[in-house]
Design goal:
The structure holds 2 protein chains of 2 kinds. Chain A is mainly alpha-helical. Chain A is built from 9 helices and no strands. Classes of the chains: A mainly alpha, B mainly alpha.
Amino acid sequence: MEYFLMFISAIFVNNIVLAQYLGQCPYLGCSKEKGVSLGMGGAVIFVMVIATPLTWLIQEFVLLPLDLGYLQTIMFILVIASLVQLVEMFLKKSIPPLYNALGIFLPLITTNCAVLGVAILVQRKEFDLGLSMFYAFASGLGFLLALVLLAAIRERLEVTHLPKSMQGVPAALVMAGIMSLSFMAFKGMIS
Amino acid sequence: MAGMWKEFSKGLWAELPPFRLLLGLCPTLAVTTTAENGFGMGMAVVFVITLSSFIVSLIRKIIPKKVRIACYITVAASLVVAVELLMQAYAYPLYQQLGIFVPLIVVNCLILGRAEAFAGKNPVHLAVADGLGMGLGFTLSLTFLGAVRELFGTGSVFGMEIMGASFEPVKFMVAAPGAFVALGLILAGMNYLSIVQAKRRGEPAPENPSTGCHACRACAGRK
């Protein structure tokens, strides 16, 4: 039950993009076409689910025993950066179809603050290993959902007559605001 | 000297982040519930970006091209750890207000973007001027956005009553949707200004700035 509630909450109530403002750059940058947004969302889920347990283990078995908690930020970002590089090389060699689908998005993910954000969030919320991994998966799904929805809206906006100054990012931001407003409606569902 | 002023001042209007460069949008949206938070976040970024530009420019000839992004991230991360410790010591309430967004300064595209696009290619004094200008521009933007949201959301700016007692606060503005809508409208306003300016000079209307994978040169450079 705890897992189920957290799942719903991470996707709808505390959506990582729309309620916690993480990962805005890919959210606005990769939401012009549905295909691109699906690839980006998939890559984010993939990296998050691997990176979060890994950083959790490092925090638990390296940083805390050595009393180096203040190195959390630098340690996590280096782990994520090297992990992304490894995953990219691994996929290229062993699973080419998956690499073709996600490959071009992987280098962009190092600087996606959603990945580092979730790794730090599960530490601050003091989740255990299983819950952290599950939370990462649910957050990634929430990201994918928000991204694909926005891409679908923007594909339609392309063919409408907007004032010149609203075209592109400003219109996408206002759309994101309206989406965020409708996601807020889930707030009463789970406290 | 003139060159330094040019690099410094472009961050304050012509390439004002995040309104014109569209880099570092996460903290821009997240911490601007009040003008004070926006200003505090901006100051932390000024510290990190100025020093990171300085260090990156200093070691730019030693860094091998292939691992430069990793080097930039390491420099930025070390500085962010320093900021975290300093804020815990001297500005603890602000540190708690900004929450997770203090460690996330590491992945702020603005810092990596400037390291990649400017500091990694230019001499130290220009890089510092550029970093300082960009940082101050970022602070200005965040303080402005924070002030707008605080004014309509609570009726005050920097904690001072402005709107008077009869004003009904628009809660929408300090919640998440208000951040998106306010930023979107400000960006539209900026675009409108540049279109009007171009028309007055008789030039063709400029393209609206776009964000993301293409604008963030740090990411594109890794291919």
